[in-house]
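Entry for the shared binder. Reason: the reviewer on the internal report wants the predicted structure included alongside the sequence.
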Amino acid sequence: MTGIRSGSLVAAVLSLGLLAGCAGGGGKEPESFENFTAEEIYKRGEYELENSRKPKDAVKYFSEVERLYPYSEWAKRALIMQAYSYHRARQYEEARGAAQRFIDTYPGDEDAAYAKYLLALSYYDQIDEIGRDQGLTFQALQALREVIEQYPDTEYARSSILKFDLAFDHLAAKEMEIGRYYLKRGHYTAAINRFRVVVEDFQTTSHTPEALMRLVEAYLALGLNDQAQTAGAILGHNFRSSPFYADAYAQLRGRGLSPEARGDSWLTRVYRQVIQGKWL
């Protein structure tokens, strides 16, 4: 992270001693930092961040730097360190707020890319369970895309690309989970709608082979053999070595059918695009 450099351990320890002296007896928190330089307060914040079990403890020091020395280089560093400290503490909303303030205040600074990346991470790191509402996933995708597009030559863009793919895969996983739920309960049309989303909108994810196999299963259950055969043909064309193709092929052969494009449906159109090299 350019522009943000840790002070020496000696300086940090000295700052710790100086600031601790303000507390007086009884271990009370200091009420004021006016008698200390921006660097001394900043380094105490760094020390707390590196040594405390509670990353949020560092925030008050970085906040004081910004309050007491608002137009200094240390204040600029302190603001982005607030965002980082909040993120370490998993206080993601506060992290986003501090990161956005840095972007708004210092849009042309070399650390603006990192601030943007921290903002994106504050969404991304809240993506945990497939069953949760996916609003955060969409917000993470948008924020990661902005890092990639606005700062394409940075290390943050490279990291964002990897995380974007994982978040995108996460959305597809959600569609698959719901589709399997409907399929298991015999709600075939509802299941097909979910698997279709994966095939059309998330075709670059790892879930596409299974989505096509599930389409074969659902269409066969409805007696829509043309669609089932076409889904099997697409699966065979793109994922012949996948175990999902072996499963789909067995289902079709069990009905005396083969994987081939038939009829005129949305799947037939997808098949034509595959043959022309314009899909996947």
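Summary line for the report: The CA atoms of residues 179 and 190 lie 7 Å apart.
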